[in-house]
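A.,

Following up on our hallway conversation. Structure tokens first:
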């Protein structure tokens, strides 16, 4: 269901100028019922000026009257014929000014760790242009010496689900084309959930755990040498200087 513009300011106006229930207002503006009650108590949206939905062509007076007379009635936005058939604007993703300097680092990370991604996919993920991506691929970017690869998800330039979807799409394309891949490339084409679910290294069976440093075979000659080198316990008590003469001199 579509929500009105300036939802909180619209809720303030409805609380101040109508007798519509908090539940009806909350459902209409997409807020919680307790937030609407907080607006009525003055604890929420203090200082926010009400936004008249009637004057701004979002509600009709008849719709408000119907909601006031029937607590179960759900408010509906006024039909706007001008918005019918409106298409979403196509183009690169908008990146805030505070994060635009991080885009080259994110592109370098994608090029390094996901070279299977097409330029169009990278441009859609981080909101850049193909010439910029190409210059980073070819390491001809003017600031390439100062760039560090940083995960675009960590930078807030895209969502992890969006990156996973792009990687999976690239994996399906490469599988369809029959391009051979080694184990490292195959792991890169996994989603985050799949890679986190994999074991980092093969486990040793419990029955032989702790015996991995021992060899399964041995040399009989080595065993004979070890048997010949056995030390007699009496030799530990034969101190230097002891002889049979000392025993003869004793009374």
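Then the amino acids I'd put at each of the 251 positions:
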């Amino acid at each position: 269901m579509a929500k009105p513009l300036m939802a909180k300011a619209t809720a303030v106006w409805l609380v101040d100028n109508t007798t519509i229930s908090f539940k009806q207002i909350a459902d209409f503006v997409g807020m919680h019922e307790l937030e609407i009650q907080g607006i009525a108590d003055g604890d929420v949206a203090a200082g926010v000026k009400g936004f008249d939905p009637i004057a701004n062509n979002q509600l009709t007076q008849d719709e408000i009257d119907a909601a006031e007379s029937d607590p179960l009635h759900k408010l509906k936005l006024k039909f706007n014929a001008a918005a019918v058939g409106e298409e979403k604007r196509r183009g690169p993703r908008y990146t805030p000014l505070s994060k635009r300097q991080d885009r080259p680092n994110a592109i370098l990370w994608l090029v390094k760790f996901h070279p299977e991604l097409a330029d169009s996919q990278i441009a859609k993920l981080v909101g850049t242009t193909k010439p910029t991506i190409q210059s980073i691929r070819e390491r001809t970017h003017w600031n390439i010496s100062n760039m560090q690869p940083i995960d675009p998800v960590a930078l807030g330039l895209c969502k992890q689900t969006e990156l996973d979807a792009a990687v999976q799409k690239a994996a399906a394309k490469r599988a369809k084309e029959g391009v051979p891949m080694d184990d490292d490339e195959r792991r890169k084409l996994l989603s985050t959930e799949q890679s986190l679910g994999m074991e980092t290294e093969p486990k040793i069976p419990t029955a032989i755990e702790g015996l991995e440093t021992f060899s399964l075979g041995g040399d009989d000659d080595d065993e004979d040498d070890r048997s010949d080198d056995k030390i007699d316990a009496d030799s530990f008590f034969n101190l230097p200087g002891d002889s049979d003469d000392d025993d003869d001199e004793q009374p």
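The chain is about 45% helix and 0% strand. Curious whether your intuition agrees with the design.

B.
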